[in-house]
Amino acid sequence: MIEFWLSLPPLLQATLKGLAVIAVIFPLAGAGSMAERKVSAWIQGRPGPNRAAIPWLVKIPFLGRALQRLGLFQLLADGLKFFFKEDPVPGHVNKFYFFLAPAVALIPALTTVVAVPFGAWLDGDTVVPIGLANVDLGLLAIFAVSSLGVYALILAGWASNSKYPFLGGVRASAQFISYELSMTISVLPVFLWVNSPGMRGSLSLARVVEFQSLPGFWGGAWFIFTMPVCALIFLIALFAETNRQPFDMPESEADLVGGFHTEYGAFKWAIFFVAEYAHMIVGSGIFTLLFLGGWNPLPWVSLADFSALIGIAGNPLVVGVVSIVIFLLKVLFLIFFFMWVRWTVPRFRYDQVMVLGWQKLLPLSIANLFFYLVVIALLQERL
Amino acid sequence: MAILPVERRPLTLSERSYLPQIARGLKTTLKHIFAPNETMEYPEVQPEIPPGYRGVPTLVTDPHGREKCVSCQLCEFVCPPKAIRITPGSVPEGSGREHIEKAPEEFKIDMLRCIYCGLCQEVCPEEAIFLQNQFSLNGLTREEMVHDKKRLYELGGSLPDRHFKWDKKKAAAEHGNAH
Amino acid sequence: MSQTAPSPDLVTVNIDGQEIAVPKGTNVIEAARKLAVDIPHYCYHEKLSVAGNCRMCLIEMGMPAVDPATKAPIIDEATGKQKVNWIPKPVIGCGTNVSPGMHIRTTTPMVKDARESVMEFLLINHPLDCPICDQAGECKLQEQATGYGRGYSRYIEPKNVKPKRTVLGPRVTLDDERCILCSRCIRFSREIAKDDVLGFTERGSYSTLTCFPGRELANNYSLNTVDICPVGALTSTDFRFKMRVWFLKQTNSICTESSVGANTVVWSREGTIYRITPRQNDAVNDTWMTDSGRMLYKEVQAENRLTRPLVRGVAVTADAALDAATELLRSAQPGTVAIVGSGRSSVEEQFLTRKLAEALGDKVGAPVSVVSRVGEGDGLLLSADRNPNLRGALITGLIEALPPTYAPLAALAAAIEAGEVKTVISVGEDLAEAGLSAEQLAKVSVIYLSTHANATSQAAAVVLPTLTVFEKSGSFVNQQFRIQKFAQAVPGPAGAADDLATLSALIAIAGGGRGGPVSDRNAVPNGRVETLWKALAAEVPAFANVTYQEIPDDGLLLDATPYASLPFVEGETLHHKPTTPISPLNERATTSTAA
Question: What is the protein's major site of localization (chain C) (predicted)?
Answer without folding.
Answer: membrane
